Amino acid sequence: MRTATDHVMGTVVSLTAPDTTDPALFETAATAAFAHLHHVDRVFSPYLSDSPISRIRDGRLPLADLVGHPDGPQIREVLDLCERLKQDSGGAFDAWAVGDPPRFDPCGAVKGWAAEHACALAAAHGLPRHLLNAGGDIRLYSGNDPALWRVGITDPHHPGTVLTVLHLRDGAVATSGTAERGTHVFDPRTARPAAALTQVTVTGPDLTLADGYATAALAMATDPRGRTAAQAWLAALAARTGYQALTVDPFGVTWHTAQLPDLLTAPVTRTPAPARG
């Protein structure tokens, strides 16, 4: 496979296409995709003191001033996405109440949204079959190629191994969890940390929504009752939208939506979590 990588948005992003892809075409598509991601990072990073998002957070950029702002349409699109995710999740995803103490931070929606747009750019630049991996959140394009992509879902309790493998022609796979960054997601409705699930993976046609849904489900799982609520919400979401999900709890117990096995090469491996010392 032909691959290009870049470090952007605080993670490593890779673009992959078949070996038969024209090298010049691939380079042009990769350049366009990565340039878009860097632009998004400059606009939406809460770590850059003068980014528009930092200025919205501290009041230097009122929302009313987005009219006529060069990045206004993109910011409005993300704010609308955040509002949709808030409504869909019953408030478990809320870009205006992230962390402890609560603060404005739309990053839970931005990465998937940016990667979705980057893939569309790569396709527009003549790259029909490709895969973009943005820190573990994956968007797949196949064009007219009928071959399926294989996407492994990591086992959060056993680094370097996978729980199962998805077979997809097109679509997205997004994962939110605590294995690498620890407990960093809070339910904005209760200000309690999400600790009852170790990992949530969501797959569907659009990485923008898959990423947001995974984050929202993780945020719901603050305790065993919240874990059950998150799984019930994911089951209802699957029935309504077709987005399928797989969860792993701190003890290694897995749960999945009804139709997820249709996408798997084998049943999910149930392995216990390592003993806690």
Strand content: 15-25%
- Unreliable stretches: none
C-alpha Rg (nearest Å): 19 Å
**CATH superfamily grouping:** ApbE-like domains
For the record, the CATH class is Alpha Beta
Shape: globular
CATH fold-level name:
T-fold
Oligomer: single chain
Helix tally equals 6
Number of domains: 1
Q: Structural class given helices, strands, pairing?
A: alpha+beta
Number of strand elements:
12
Order of helices and strands: EEHHHHEEEEEEEEHHEE
Measured distance between first and last alpha carbons = 42 Å
CATH architecture: Roll
Helix amount: 25-40%
Mean pLDDT: 93
Largest sheet: 8 strands, antiparallel
Topology:
Layout (H helix, E strand, L loop, with lengths): L1 E7 L2 E7 L5 H22 L7 H6 L14 H17 L18 H18 L5 E5 L2 E5 L7 E6 L7 E7 L2 E7 L8 E2 L4 E2 L5 E6 L2 H14 L3 H18 L2 E5 L5 E3 L21
Antiparallel strand pairs: 1-2, 2-3, 3-4, 4-7, 5-6, 7-10, 8-9, 10-11, 11-12
Helix pairs in contact: 1-4, 4-5, 5-6
Key traits:
alpha+beta; 277 residues; two-stranded antiparallel sheet; globular; 6 helices; T-fold; single chain; eight-stranded antiparallel sheet
Task: Please tell me about this protein's structure.
By secondary structure, the chain is α+β, with helices and mostly antiparallel strands. It has one domain: T-fold (Roll), CATH 3.10.520.10. Helices cover 34% and strands 22% of the residues. Strands 1-2-3-4-7-10-11-12 form an 8-stranded antiparallel sheet, covered by helices on one side. β11 and β12 form a beta hairpin. The model has no long low-confidence stretch (mean pLDDT 93).
